[in-house]
Amino acid sequence: QDSLYNESNRPQFHFTSQRGWINDPNGLVYHDEEYHLFYQHNPYEREWENMHWGHAVSKDLIHWQELPTALFPDHLGTMFSGSAAIDYNNTAGYNQGGVPAMIVAYTADNAEKQVQCIAYSLDNGRTFTKDEVNPVIDSKHKWKSKDTRDPKVFWYKPGSHWVMVLNERDGHSIYTSTNLKEWNYESHVTGFWECPELFDLPIDGNPSNTKWVMYGASGTYMLGSFDGKVFRPDAGKYQYTTGSIYAAQTFNNMPDGRRVQIGWGRIDHPGMPFNGMMLLPTELTLRTTKDGPRLFNVPVKETERLFMPMQQWRNLTSDKANRLMDQFDDADCLRIKTTFKLSHATNAGLNLFGQRIVDYDLNYNMLNGVFYSPEDMTSMEISADIYIDRTNIEVFIDGGAYSYSMQRTPDGNNKEGFHFWGNNIEVKNLEVFGAKSIWK
Ligand code: FRU
Predict the structure, then answer these.
(1) What CATH class is the domain 306-435?
(2) Percentage with pLDDT > 70 across the chain
(3) Fewest CB atoms less than 10 Å from the CB: which of 56, 163, 169, 261?
(4) Ligand 1: does its nearest atom lie under 6 Å from the Cβ of 286?
């Protein structure tokens, strides 16, 4: 497939479709030794319109094989976002000869309303059948709103039932079902918009101390408890990621219990036959911080295989670091890990051709324009793991305590290249890695 994925603005270690528009990841599920990535897709144009579900599979979360379109628009509407699960207990009655059905729950969008539907596959997501029971939820009237969409479905083991989290008007609702076809409304949490998620995670890896995480499309989340029907938040909302990321979803049925997320990168791809991209798969964990448990987000360990160490330096002045980085100014695929200490500066950072990749203001606790309070305020250090891939940049701060992504703007008139700035900062660590293409 290499000849098809070799355009000049094609990200080299992120998933993009061969042609057409993509947005939200949908139906993330691991099954039968394959990771499935479905996604919002307009197969015909570079613009958002005429939603289908595209489909790709992977053995390692890194190298993806694009498959034919999975869901097509029908009489109920176009195919908006949703999720996938495997019906091991044959609750919906679709299983055949010991083959468990893959079920997708999605929204059909038409001019009047958005309704929730299901479809099943007995061939590992290659083809789907839509049941005549659709729609399984039609809630416009109840909410007096057209905005009812993006079902995330998972099996709730303690109660032996299905749970659906659904965006309805001003927040996320919870529905339950025993057969995926009849759904009971249970509860609602306000303060979220689009693409709901709900899952539990151990705190600091301790399986007997867990919390539930609810999040929405924008990267804000709440921590709380969940009894199978009601999510009760402990407190308010936090933000774990921002920038170009939107509508992230996590995998159902991960074989090793990890909570792995893929987000849509709202990145423009000028002049390309495709548009939009998926960001790196990341592992979500809960860790105790000075402010209580918080969500951490780092690229999955599988991504390490893509990067080859090229240089490592320690304890440099910013001038020295800038001279050493000159040789990489023209590289468009690179990973950079750095830790710098502000010392006498109240703000400092790293630019690329004038674009602020890292911009940390210790005085106002701001990182690239967003409030950020490091765990250790006395060290005056900040670390960043930076992934540059032609059209986009992803940054993971302080081991995943916070992350963000942005469009790469390579064509500024500013010729400074990589440039650390800030009064007398110390570059304690600087590592540069080359990147392997996933398309070769
Ligand atoms: C989020 C979203 C979803 C919707 C889909 C349509 O980006 O607006 O709420 O289902 O995109 O493409």
Answers:
(1) mainly beta
(2) 99
(3) 169
(4) no
